[in-house]
Amino acid sequence: MSLQLRPLHPLFAAEASGVDLRRPLDDATVRAIEEAMDRHAVLAWRGQPFSEDQQVAFARRFGPLDLGLRKARMGKHRFRYDELIDISNLTPQGEVAGRGHAKIVSICDLRAAYDALADRQKDELENLRSQHYAFHTRLWLGDTSYTEEQLKSLPPVEWPLVRTHPGSGRRVLWVGAHATHIVGWTLAEGRMLLAELLEHATQRELVYRHRWRAGDLVMWDNRCTLHRGRRFDLSQRRELRRTTTEDVA
Fold it and tell me: CB–CB of 204/112 below 8 Å?
């Protein structure tokens, strides 16, 4: 069978089918998936219950894998691969931990967010840069378990507020919860602008909300989307794992 796509949102996101991702993929299928990602930014697949081996093998077809925040804290892990990032609400022993993450994931398209800006706003943002810090939201949520050495392992970086997405060639409004301030602006003025832009990017018309079923796989392009988990019943077992590929283009 060949790749089939059904739009899930007027602006981006599609349900993908027609390919068993648990089997080795040929180069033509990989290219077709990459082209679909460049167009839709989010692909949701049903009925793909990966084993750990299958998930890692699939993800590696799209580039080298990144450890994410595990670079800072390589503690006890439930999985055989360090590249599998545990985003469940389970302890390393596989028991429900109590307080955890979200069950429903919302994703917004930052290309559509840029397109929806007024021309004067696009002109204002064109040459601005913001600082991003991976631990910013962790600290904001009260996670004080990181050591100074761990916090320094992923230092803040600067990015332009407007970028070009390499896959589609479209302009991207590069904001997110990790953005701490606007470079060269006062802290208050910069954070007010960032809050305004984040509110703009996450308005309902620009968001796709995925409702998980067992065996789902969701692919999203971190270069042009934002994602956020939502609250859920913390007593319910939530089994999710993530792999992230590096952008080597």
Answer: no
**Residue 108 amino acid letter:** C
In angstroms and rounded to an integer, the radius of gyration of the C-alpha atoms of the chain is 19
Buried-state track 142-164, b at ≥16 Cβ within 10 A, e below 16 = eeeebeeeeeeeeeeeebebbbe
Q: Does residue 126 register a pLDDT over 70?
A: yes
Q: What is the mean pLDDT of residues 137-157?
A: 78
Which residues, other chains included, contact 178 with Cβ-Cβ below 8 Å and sequence gap of 6+?
132, 133, 134, 136, 137
> What pLDDT was estimated at residue 53?
96
Query: What burial letters (b/e) apply to 201-218, b meaning 16+ CB within 10 Å?
Result: bbeeebbbebeeeeeebb
Could you give the angle at the alpha carbon of 68 between the alpha carbons of 65 and 73, nearest 5°? 125
Residue limits of CATH 3.60.130.10 in the chain: 4-101+214-220+232-245, 107-205
Q: Report the helix count and the strand count for the chain, using DSSP H and E.
A: 7, 16
Is the Cα dihedral 177, 178, 180, 181 positive or negative?
Answer: negative
